[in-house]
């Protein structure tokens, strides 16, 4: 027995009757005209179905009379606001539905699921001890009939258990047969809201090109964690033809942080060079397992078509693209939690060609590589025998283990090292006397190549997070010695202590310090490191001819101007090195105008350093540091 409340002149009851779904259907409404119309329309064609004039807030039926109460849009029509009178009316409606429904019976409510409507229904029936499930039954892909998805609330009546029985709340998305359990009414409402936003997005993308890049996460059905991150990029400059409307680009694992894939401008260039009007880039998440390119294609084919551009020809085959045709290699080597930096992971990833890289990622900002080194294939030490030819070779998919200490991964690190050519010592860097100091502060892996470059000089990195020293030592080839010593301390406190005890002792001071506060428009360094009193302490411990090198990452233009102004107040000489394609800017500060270097002299120093980099037996066979130094000369 089915009761349809607020039936109106809908054909739903007639269609259910005609297809044989059920025949014992009672329809009620408060409109006399509607009831007469529907009685005349059904007449003798549907003898077991009845239409009655009745107010659902005060029904004449006995208790526990129906197995199903069906509501098609009636709740949406009544609950138009959250005024006290409206909510009281809805409470009365729910109480009557509960009264006439049998235990084990179901209240089925078809709704557009506005947040306040869904929240009210879920809270009421879950508190009554009912099982609450929300099904998405229609979306924007249904021949464009619906812009917003349609939902059905399925409320199953149980006897109320005294005390605090656990709530059973579930959502069953359109593309899934199996419902997902959620922990609270708020989370259920949020899950529905996500699907409504997605439906609106798909509707907009199907009608007009997107001016700004759109991003969204597709989550794992079991865990609810992000599995794919999609960016939709339109290229207005590409002239559409039958074969270049739409394509999907799978970013190889571990390469999602690269400029081409990890920035808006990079993705824009990627889309233009690919030659498609709309390109959807797909980043793969490290916590997930993927069954190769074919598995990803099968998994995503239906979902990505919901993001197709307007004008896509019917039955158009959409290509899946990638670099080299594979999904890349990512091997998690270590994961842990730091009291200061939170959850982090050390992973090996495959870059272009056969190169492998080891990276440190803080998961609170998972798209930023905190530290990176290049890995080398293992080579036998002097005196060791080479591998026999008949021995099994290592798999090409297995990353090598040796650290390439001649490689600097980040452009801003290269610029920071190149800034050492500003030092005022009349002798070139390789001849520095033992005992002259370089004070570094920040990422654990930055100082690794510096001792090789400084000859007899000393490097004293500061690191506030002891766990990062352990990570650097175990996973990134970092080691301490006579020329490299690490102090675990707060850099602010340590510099203040040095300024009070031993001023003017450092040739170079380098800051590469990330900020834990993501609400500030400056992610490097934390604001305290660029306040005037602290900068004056930095100047105090720096030799008059020394150089202070600072990595500045600031997206707030006003804040950046303020930082630069403060630095100029403290340091008479300030040079800025912009890193192309990145937000990073390297600031070279000198405490005395006498430190201004003649470009001819700087060029000579850079050429001397070039000779050092190419000396036999030294691992530095690259010229990228030289190029940055010559660029610094050009700027000066």
Automatic annotation (TrEMBL):
Q: What are the boundaries of the region Disordered?
A: 379-400
Gene3D superfamilies assigned? Vaccinia Virus protein VP39
Which InterPro entries did the record assign?
Lys/N-term_MeTrsfase_sf (IPR051419), Methyltranfer_dom (IPR025714), SAM-dependent_MTases_sf (IPR029063)
Q: Which GO terms describe its biological process?
A: methylation
A Pfam family assignment = Spermine_synth
Q: Which residues form the Methyltransferase domain?
A: 2-121
GO MF terms, alphabetically ordered: methyltransferase activity
UniProt biased composition (Basic residues): 384-394
Enumerate the UniProt keywords alphabetically.
Answer: Methyltransferase, Multifunctional enzyme, Transferase
On whether Kinase is a keyword of this UniProt record, the answer is no
This entry carries the following GO cellular component terms, namely: cytoplasm
Q: Which family does it belong to?
A: Belongs to the methyltransferase superfamily.
What's the name of the protein? Answer: eEF1A lysine and N-terminal methyltransferase
Species of origin: Leptosomus discolor
């Amino acid at each position: 027995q089915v009761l349809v409340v607020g039936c109106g002149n809908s054909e739903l009851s007639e269609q259910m009757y005609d297809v044989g779904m059920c025949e014992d259907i009672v329809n009620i409404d408060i409109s006399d005209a509607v009831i007469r119309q529907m009685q005349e329309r059904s007449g003798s064609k549907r003898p077991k179905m009845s239409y009655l004039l009745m107010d659902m807030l005060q029904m004449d039926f006995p208790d526990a009379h129906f197995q199903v109460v069906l509501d098609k849009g009636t709740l949406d029509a009544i609950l138009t606001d959250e005024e006290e009178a409206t909510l009281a009316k809805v409470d009365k409606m729910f109480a009557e539905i509960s009264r006439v429904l049998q235990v084990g019976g179901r209240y089925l409510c078809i709704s557009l699921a506005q947040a306040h409507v869904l929240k009210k229904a879920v809270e009421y029936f879950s508190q009554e001890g009912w099982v609450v499930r929300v099904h998405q039954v229609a979306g924007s892909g249904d021949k464009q009939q619906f812009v917003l998805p349609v939902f059905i609330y399925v409320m199953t009546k149980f006897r109320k258990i005294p005390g605090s029985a656990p709530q059973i709340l579930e959502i069953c998305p359109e593309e899934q047969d199996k419902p997902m359990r959620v922990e609270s009414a708020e989370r259920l409402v949020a899950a529905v809201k996500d699907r409504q936003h997605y439906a609106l997005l798909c509707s907009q993308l199907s009608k007009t090109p997107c001016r700004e890049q759109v991003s969204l996460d597709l989550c794992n059905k079991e865990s609810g964690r992000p599995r794919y991150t999609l960016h939709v990029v339109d290229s207005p400059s590409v002239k559409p033809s039958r074969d270049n409307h739409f394509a999907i680009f799978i970013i190889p694992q571990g390469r999602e942080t690269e400029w081409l894939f990890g920035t808006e401008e990079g993705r824009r260039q990627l889309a233009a060079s690919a030659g498609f009007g709309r390109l959807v880039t797909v980043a793969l998440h490290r916590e997930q397992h993927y069954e190769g390119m074919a598995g990803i294609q099968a998994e995503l084919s239906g979902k990505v078509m919901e993001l197709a551009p307007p004008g896509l020809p019917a039955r158009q085959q959409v290509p899946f693209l990638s670099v080299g045709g594979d999904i890349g290699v990512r091997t998690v080597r270590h994961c842990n939690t730091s009291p200061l930096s939170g959850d982090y992971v050390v992973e090996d990833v495959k870059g272009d060609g056969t190169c492998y890289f080891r990276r440190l990622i803080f998961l609170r900002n998972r798209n930023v590589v905190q530290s990176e080194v290049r890995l080398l294939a293992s080579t036998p030490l002097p005196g060791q025998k080479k591998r026999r030819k008949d021995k099994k070779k290592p798999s090409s998919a297995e990353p090598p283990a040796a650290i390439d200490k001649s490689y600097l991964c980040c452009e801003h690190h290269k610029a920071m090292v190149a800034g050492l050519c500003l030092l005022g010592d009349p002798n070139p860097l390789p001849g520095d006397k033992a005992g002259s100091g370089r004070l570094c502060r920040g990422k654990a892996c930055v100082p690794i190549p510096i001792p090789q470059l400084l000859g007899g000089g000393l490097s004293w990195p500061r690191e506030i997070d002891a766990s990062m020293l352990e990570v650097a030592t175990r996973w990134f080839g970092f080691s301490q010695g006579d020329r490299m010593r690490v102090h675990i301390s707060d850099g602010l406190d340590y510099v203040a202590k040095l300024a009070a005890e031993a001023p003017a002792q450092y040739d170079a001071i380098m800051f590469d310090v990330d900020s834990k506060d993501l609400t500030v428009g400056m992610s490097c360094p934390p604001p305290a490191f660029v306040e005037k009193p602290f900068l004056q302490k930095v100047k105090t411990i720096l030799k008059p001819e020394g150089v202070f090198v600072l990595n500045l990452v600031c997206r707030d233009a006003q804040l950046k101007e303020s930082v630069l102004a403060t630095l100029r107040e403290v340091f008479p000489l300030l040079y800025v090195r912009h890193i192309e394609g990145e937000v990073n800017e390297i600031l070279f500060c000198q405490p005395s105008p006498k430190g201004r270097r003649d470009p001819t002299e700087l060029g000579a120093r850079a050429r001397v350093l070039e000779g050092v980099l190419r000396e036999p037996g030294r691992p530095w066979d690259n010229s990228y540091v030289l190029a940055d130094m010559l660029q610094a000369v050009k700027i000066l």
